[in-house]
């Protein structure tokens, strides 16, 4: 034991001491003269080098730990301290400011929030349309936080079915061809695509509309085609962004009944909405404000009857 209670460490000892303090969060609050006393700095002159090497080694260790702790098998989504920052001139916008969330298989979750709450940014991240500035996103057991655009596109095609407010159907294609489109990228043959698309269209009540183009369908029928397209690849998650926004009250109810049926069949459903009556169909409601989760509530009585007058 040296002076002032300081152990006569070797160079490796200094590194070990630093990493230990770094991982326990104590380094920033510890004066550097305690970590590297003046009477020892002459014996070990490369303090700055050790600090840099140690910090890098500590960062590597933390990342190894982070990426090997996987979600349990029933956890389809896990977000850990997700942040998404945007630079506008000299200003930094914190669209998401440290969000953590877990969603299990076969959950029916509504994501709510006013304009500017971070709801749309969250949807883009959940749908692998964007990547976080920092934090971890595990989707179906895979960390997708730092994936390239090409790998994210592959994940989207395999794992996520999207339903949009504006349907996003190709006007010159029939309902069958619109639904079959994702199967082209999945490598199915033409016969397999047509057969699978026809089956899914029948499941959403459109067996007699397979040859119709979007302009020959009602709004509700077009949204059913969009839902069929989202389901055709058997995704892990059905992600619906304001799916009733362009529909009348009666048709909205019919579409929400369809989502309920999909959930009962085992589908994980995430519904993004700003409408309280639509959110009440979900079994869990996550409310966002100012880039944070304000509330995460279990809905004990999901709506099962028409909620709109």
Topology of this structure?
Layout (H helix, E strand, L loop, with lengths): L10 H13 L8 H4 L2 H4 L5 H22 L6 E14 L2 E14 L3 E5 L6 H8 L7 E6 L2 E2 L5 H11 E4 L11 H11 L4 H14 L15 H13 L5 E5 L7 H16 L3 E5 L3 H4 L4 E6 L2 E7 L11
Parallel strand pairs: 3-8, 3-9, 6-7, 7-8
Antiparallel strand pairs: 1-2, 1-4, 4-5, 9-10
Helix pairs in contact: 1-4, 7-8, 7-9, 8-9, 9-10
Question: Which features characterize this protein?
Answer:
alpha/beta, disordered N terminus, 4-stranded antiparallel sheet, 6-stranded mixed sheet, Rossmann fold, 2 domains, 309 residues
Give a verbal description of the structure:
- With 309 residues, this protein is α/β, with parallel strands linked by helices.
- It folds into two domains: 3-68, no CATH class; 75-298, 3-Layer(aba) Sandwich (Rossmann fold), CATH 3.40.50.
- The chain is built from eleven helices and ten strands.
- The protein has helices spanning 11-23, 32-35, 38-41, 47-68, 119-126, 149-159, 175-185, 190-203, 219-231, 249-264, 276-279; strands at residues 75-88, 91-104, 108-112, 134-139, 142-143, 160-163, 237-241, 268-272, 284-289, 292-298.
- Strands 6-7-8-3-9-10 form a six-stranded mixed beta sheet, sandwiched between helices.
- Helix 7 crosses helix 8.
- It is globular, with a radius of gyration of 26 Å.
- The chain starts with 10 loop residues before the first helix and ends in an 11-residue tail after the last strand.
- The model is unreliable at 1-36 and 49-69 (pLDDT under 50).
């Amino acid at each position: 034991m040296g002076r002032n209670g300081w152990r006569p460490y070797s160079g490796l000892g200094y590194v070990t001491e630093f990493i230990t303090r770094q991982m326990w969060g104590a380094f920033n609050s510890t004066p550097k003269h305690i970590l590297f006393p003046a009477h020892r700095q002459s014996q070990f002159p490369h303090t700055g080098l050790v600090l840099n090497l140690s910090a890098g080694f500590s960062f590597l260790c933390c990342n190894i730990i982070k990426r090997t702790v996987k979600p349990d098998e029933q956890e389809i989504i896990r977000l850990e301290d997700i942040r998404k920052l945007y630079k506008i001139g000299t200003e930094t916008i914190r669209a998401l400011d440290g969000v953590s969330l877990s969603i299990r298989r076969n959950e029916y979750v509504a994501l709510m929030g006013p304009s500017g709450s971070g709801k749309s940014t969250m949807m883009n991240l959940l749908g692998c349309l964007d990547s976080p500035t920092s934090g971890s996103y595990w989707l179906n057991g895979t960390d997708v936080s730092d994936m390239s655009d090409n790998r994210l596109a592959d994940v989207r095609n395999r794992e996520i079915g999207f339903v949009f407010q504006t349907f996003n159907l190709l006007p010159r294609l029939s309902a069958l061809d619109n639904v079959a489109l994702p199967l082209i990228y999945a490598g199915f043959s033409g016969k397999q695509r047509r057969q699978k698309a026809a089956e899914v269209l029948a499941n959403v009540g459109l067996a007699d509309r397979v040859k119709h183009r979007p302009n020959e369908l009602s709004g509700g029928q077009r949204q059913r085609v969009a839902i069929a397209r989202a389901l055709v690849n058997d995704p892990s998650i059905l992600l619906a962004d304001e799916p009733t926004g362009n529909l009348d009250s009666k048709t909205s109810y019919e579409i929400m009944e369809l989502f309920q049926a999909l959930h009962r069949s085992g589908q994980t459903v995430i519904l993004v909405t700003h409408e309280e009556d639509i959110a009440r169909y979900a079994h869990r409601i996550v409310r966002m404000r100012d880039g944070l989760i304000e509330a995460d509530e279990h809905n004990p009585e999901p709506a099962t009857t028409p909620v709109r007058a």
